[in-house]
Amino acid sequence: MAIKGFGAPKKSYTFENKEVKSKKNTLALAGMAIAIIIIVIVAVILLQKPSDGKSALNVYLPNATIEESSNNTCDDICWLNEGVTKKSAYACGKINDSAKAQECFEKVAIYSLEACMKITDSTKNKECIIANAISQQSIILCDSFKNESEKNECIDKADPCYFKNGTEHSLCVAMSKNNYTYCGKDENCILNFVENTKDINACSAIKVEAKQYACMAIAKGKDSCKNLEQPSQRDLCFETYSMWKNQSFLCDEITYNSMYALECYQYFAVIEKNMDYCKKLAFNNEWSCYLNYSVGTNDVSGCIEINKNAEFSKVKCFTDFAMINRNPGACALMSDPGDAIQCYYSSIFMPDVGPIPKENCANITSNTWKDKCYSYSATGNNEIITCSLVEDNSAMQNCYDKFK
C-alpha cells in the first residue's frame, strides 16, 4: 500500500548479466569499425581523379592501361593528313616543314579563316579571304585588306548590292533574294523585277490600277490596257507600257493631245533625239514638248521651233535651256534685249546648278556678259587660265584676283 505524500511505488531494477552486456558492446564496436572503413573507401573513390575520361573505379582494375594518343607520335605527313581530313588549322600549324604547312593551310583555307590568314602567298591569301567573305556573306572580313581597291573588290563580291543606290539597290536585293517585297513602294523596281522574272504577283504591290495593268502587260508580254474601262486609266496604262517596252507606236493609242500623250511623245523625242514626235501634239502641248526636247538633249533647236507668237513659251524655253544646261549662249537667240539680260543673269549666276564650261561662253554676243561668263567659268571650274579669255583688262584682273 502506497504511503501518502510519496507517490507511486518505484519499480524494482534488475541488473543485466555481465556476459550479455559484454557481447552487446563488442557488436557495437564492430559496427562502428565497419562503418568507418566503408566511409574511408567511398571517400577515396570519390576523391580519385578520372584519367582520360575513365571512371576512378577503372583505375584500380587489374592490368588496366591508358591508351596513348597517336598525336604524340604524329609526323609532318600525319599532321598534314589530319589537318586536311579534319579541316583543322591547328593540325596544320603542327607541321614543321613550312612548305607542307602552307600546303595544308591552303587546302583548308576555304573552311577556316584562321588557316586563310596564315597563308603567306599574297594572291592566294586574297582569294581565300574573298572566298570566306562570299561563303559567310559578310563584308566585315573585307576589312582585313589595307588596299582600298582590294577591299572594295571583296565587298562587291561578298555583297553585289552594297555599292548600288536607290532603285538599283532595291532591285539588286529583290533579284538576289527572288522576292519583290524588297522593292517596297518603288514602282520602277517592281516593273524591272516583273520584266526579269515574269512574276505577275509582284504587280499587286503597285497601288494605281492602271499601272497594275501595265505591269501585267509587261509580265505577259502583251497588251492588257484595253481591258480598262475609264479612258484616263487606259491612257496611263498605255503610257507606262509603251515607255517601259520602248514602243513609241503605242503612244498613238492614247487620247489625242492629253497630258498622257504629251508625256509619252516627249519621252521618245528625248531618248531618240527626234523632235518630230512633238508635231503629233497641238499648241501648248507641242511647245512643252519642244522645251523638254531641248533641255533633255542639249539641242536648242527645239526652242527655235516654238512658234514666234508663243512668246512666253519661247522665252521660257531659252531661259530654261541656258540655266539647266549651263549654256548662256542661248540667251543671244532671244529677240527682246530685256529678256536676254534676264536670261544671262539667271544662267551665269547660278552656282548651285554647276560650273559653266568655258566653251559655252563663246556664243554670247554681248562682250560684257561674255566676260562675266568666262570669269565665273574660271572660278567655278578652278581654271585660272580661263581668265585670259576675258577681254576687258579690269575684268580680267578681277578674275585673276579671285585666285589669290
In helices, the fraction of residues equals: 55-70%
Envelope shape: flat
Give Rg in angstroms: 46 Å
Give the tally of β-strands: 0
**In terms of structural class, how would the helical and strand content be classed?**
mainly alpha
Beta-strand fraction estimate: under 5%
Order of helices and strands: HHHHHHHHHHHHHHHHHHH
- Terminal Cα span: 142 Å
Uncertain residue ranges: 1-24, 49-70
**Mean pLDDT level:** 85
Q: What profile does the largest beta sheet have? A: none
Counted by DSSP, the helix tally is 19
Textual characterization of the structure:
It is a single chain. By secondary structure, the protein is mainly alpha-helical. Among the domains are: 74-158; 164-206, no CATH class. It is 55% helix and 0% strand. It contains 19 helices and no strands. It has helices at 18-47, 56-59, 76-86, 89-93, 98-108, 113-117, 122-136, 148-158, 166-177, 187-197, 209-220, 231-245, 259-271, 283-297, 301-305, 311-324, 337-348, 367-380, 393-401. Helix 11 packs across helix 12 (231-245) and helix 16 runs parallel beside helix 17. Residues 1-24 and 49-70 have low confidence and may be disordered.
